[in-house]
Amino acid sequence: MIRIGLVDFDTSHVEAFTQRLNHVAIAESEWVDGARVVAGCPGDSKIMPERIPGYAEKLKSFGVELVEKPTDLIGKIDAVMIESQQGSRHLERAKPFLEAGIPTFVDKPFAGSLREADAMIALAQKHNTPLMSCSSLRYDPQITAALGKQSELGKLLSVEVWGPCALHDGNPGLLHYGIHGVEMLYTLLGPGCVEVQSWRTEPGEVLMARWPSGHLSTLRGIRAGQYGFGFVAHYEKGNLPFTITGSAYYREMLKAIVGMFQTKKPVIPYAEQREIMAFIEAADKSALLGGKLQKVS
To answer: What's the pTM?
Structure first.
């Protein structure tokens, strides 16, 4: 049984993940086997500090040991999940665990910048420590279903994705909630985006991206009105809409994370994790320049 430690408790993920991994206070259909949250560091937060005391008490009620400092977890755990909402905290939080050879999951967004993402990847490679970061939406069953339709409808050529896109100074641009839509784009189309244009207004933003095939895909980030998650997939032989409901994506993502902790092999190529950060930086620059086309480096 893999012993997991959690760092920073300013997100509902610490409760949702512990429920599924520890088989507590959730339906058996949501259980994930092979690992258990045994300890955690509540930490602090510049985004939602008010959440920390409540989640700390909740995890204590689940039997999770709490420690004062992240490094106090070393020796108690086999793997770690960095849960701070603020991407710019992730390099600092992940560093001691990567250096100690402890398999590390970093919740979305991967980092606060491409430079910080590069630094984490370099640490992971230097110390031969598996590292993974993603949005749970990457693993939603509807995404899997859409990819599976290619056997019937031919190659998936382009997609139109929609989802929430709340802005927060702690996670600029698409780093906050727009990351979910970006991850959906990348899971459906794969890496290799060439260039991006983004237009941002108070109610939301629209992003257009070109992959090497020349096909254009879009992301609509919604800040006003009902949003939800969903996408339209355009295949060689048809077009299908998909709407994401429920939270099965948590269960499916945790299965992938536990698999990485067990095998100690990265699940998502580092090049793709890096490109997602480059994509977000290019999109943000485009939006700030009023929609000027930007290359994804």
So the answer is: 0.96
